[in-house]
Amino acid sequence: MILTGRHISRRTLLRGMGAAVALPWLDAMQPARAAAPAGPLRLSFVYVPNGVIMDQWTPVESGANFAFPRILKPLERLRQDVLVLSGLEHRNANSQGDGAGDHARASACFLTGVHPRKTPARNIQNGISADQIAAASIGGATRFPSLELGCEDTPTVGDCDSGYSCAYTNSISWRGPASPMPPETDPRRAFERLFGSEELALDPAARARLSASRKSILDMVQEDARRISASLGPPDRHKLDEYLYAVRDLEKRVAQAAPIPAAMPEKPAGVPFYFADYQRLMYDLQVAAFQGNLTRVATLVVGREGSPRSYPEIGIPEQHHPLTHHGGNRESIEKVTRINCFHAEQFAWFLGRLADIREGEARLLDRCMIVYGSAISDGNAHTHENLPVLLAGAGGGIRSGRHIRYAPGTPMTNLYLTLLDRMGVHPESIGDSTGRIEHLSDL
Hints:
Blueprint: E1 13-16, E2 19-22, E3 42-47, E4 82-89, H1 102-109, H2 130-138, E5 147-150, E6 159-161, E7 164-165, H3 166-170, E8 174-176, E9 179-180, H4 187-195, H5 198-202, H6 204-213, H7 217-220, H8 222-230, H9 234-257, H10 275-291, E10 297-301, E11 310-311, E12 316-319, H11 320-324, H12 330-356, E13 358-359, E14 362-363, E15 368-373, E16 389-392, E17 402-411, H13 412-422
Parallel strand pairs: 3-10, 3-15, 4-17, 5-10
Antiparallel strand pairs: 1-2, 4-16, 6-7, 8-9, 11-12, 13-14, 15-16
Helix pairs in contact: 4-10, 9-10, 10-12
């Protein structure tokens, strides 16, 4: 490890007119006599809607030598970075006498483990989600306690599923029982929240100056970047250059998807035309937030429950949700399987991005615990048992590269309790949890 003798605070920002850009993890952020930097743990949850075709998801074999089934095949090159977890359930997403509304209950229950109150009005009632329990405890260490992103906009008021408020289908993150955290679905707004100051985000005059000068956010902080770079050793300069290049590339992709106007419209339009590009842009925003230590807790909703999205880019013009009610029709099952594979491909790309970034002696992926899944297993039957769940990354001593089968009836929230323990957060319970989960670190 090469240091210049100067110690840089982990909270150091590159500053310029209307912009503030965080730094990635650098060796110079570790005191000269300290051990090699370990880097903080990150916790992420990725939600996919409408369930999956389970016989194309679940490996036949348990343990380390399982064969990747069709839907998980895109992740095979990352075998040693993923755990497939079978047998987990969300019993509180079931009806319990409330009738229809499985989609709303699924998304509301996914991170809370709570059966939401059935209401289309403002008297919503849910629980506190696992991500927000973590954010409340460790969020003060970063610029943003948590980051909520999504790839499908939806209302937050009104009836979205058989008498359930749209707040339930719109949000998997809940700060309190009546306080959903709607995901940001506009990539430009998400980028400006992460890298722009309040002046850039809110002041139309500042926005006009930026647009007229055609300056990027990095142009605005380049003097500070040169000053910091000059004080670093060669390895750290290389890390900083790579990070700033990635941020500039992200900014260009955001601008191409949604050009920055002089005045922010109330609901700006403009996301990438192809859904794969949209997903990857939102994944990359999360990567940048983790790499710059802007937050350590994030959620991404790939699609809301009951999603009507179609997928013409993979030859599926029909809407996703109606296809899942296939009634055994082989053609519809095949199309849903292809959609499931498509989502898995984008998630594999996200993990690959995290694996390519170094943080000290490890990969950024090695500092992450990422849950990917849904609170519906069979979309045709609306079941909430034996859910499709992946756990990616090696953060907290997790030993990946296996398929673990848990006893039927094991609450999904037991997994969350265990992951929060590894983040240094120790709630007594989450929703319907019954204790911690085993085998994540088994040898």
